[in-house]
Amino acid sequence: MPVNAPPPIGPVDSSAVPRFAGFATFARLPRLDEVTRADVVVAGAPFDAGVSYRPGARFGPAAVREASRLLRPYNPGLDVSPFATAQVADAGDIVLNPFDVGEAIGTLAERARELTADGTRLVTLGGDHTIALPLLRAAAARHGPVALLHFDAHLDTWDTYFGEPYTHGTPFRRAAEEGLLDTSALCHVGTRGPLYGRADLDEDERLGFGIVTSADVLRRGVDEIAGALRQRIGDRPLYISVDIDVLDPAHAPGTGTPEAGGMTSRELLEILRGLRDTTLIGADVVEVAPAYDHAEITSIAASHVAYELVSLLSLGARTR
Ligand SMILES: N=C(N)NCCCC(=O)O
Ligand SMILES: [Zn+2]
Ligand SMILES: [Zn+2]
């Protein structure tokens, strides 16, 4: 935050207006047009024309905002009050053509570039995983090739589906081909489940990715994993993409391509907290499909993941 800047406008006070009342911005934060500037913005990308199985992630941003009403202003896990440390605001939904994937990703890249043009950091709520490609285009346009931590059950480095290059199973192959990624600092975390063939892993490795499987998290534990990731990333500009299906279906049933044997929400949140000394520049939380959810299990988990990411970015805002 600039010196002499007015104190950030925080969330609506839950002791004055009950948290179940009023508009559902993320964490009841002000809208972007209600603040003069923002260190961090949360934006929705309601788009799911890139899915290979269950549709419905277009309703993810609204569900995550609703579930975020209960988030409180102090984060004990990172010892930070993110909304007091940084001006955080909700930029609303980015309007994307639901019938034209190519146009939608072009629009999203452009809008993400605009939102981050003055150094504002962006956390995007998806939407299906297709949206990570345009978000990485915007990130790389500003920072050069970025380090990437990709939390997901899936590799998402496949080539095409039905001949289509832009889908939710292919964003990271496209990003690598476009030179958006720093190939010395790429890692999937939480991968599991059946693949099409052994070649999937070979091709993924050729692109430069390391893999920490869901079983590795179980065996090695969150502190060791976070430490190894921190070392791999160093102080490179880091983008984090969280596909909520990285969580076990017990922790995130509301998603399009669920796979058994996943991480717990506790493990995911702890690994994210363990990344506090990295240089996070942007993030997304994708693949929340509320129609398959129960009791908001998935959207609550996603809102907490977004809260940790905003917290990490607020720590960075302190020093920018
Ligand atoms: N990005 C997500 N969630 N899923 C990709 C699954 C691709 C497939 O159907 O094989
Ligand atoms: Zn996935
Ligand atoms: Zn994915």
TrEMBL record:
The keyword RNA-binding does not apply. GO terms for biological process: putrescine biosynthetic process from arginine, via agmatine. This is Agmatinase. NCBIfam families: agmatinase (TIGR01230), PRK02190.1 (NF002564). Belongs to the arginase family. Agmatinase subfamily. The gene is speB. Its cofactor is Mn(2+). Gene3D superfamilies: Ureohydrolase domain. Keywords: Hydrolase, Manganese, Metal-binding. Binds 2 manganese ions per subunit. Mn(2+) binds at residues 129, 152, 154, 156, 243, 245. InterPro entries: Agmatinase-rel, Ureohydrolase, Ureohydrolase_dom_sf, Ureohydrolase_Mn_BS. Pfam families: Arginase. It comes from the Bacteria. One of its GO terms (molecular function) is agmatinase activity.
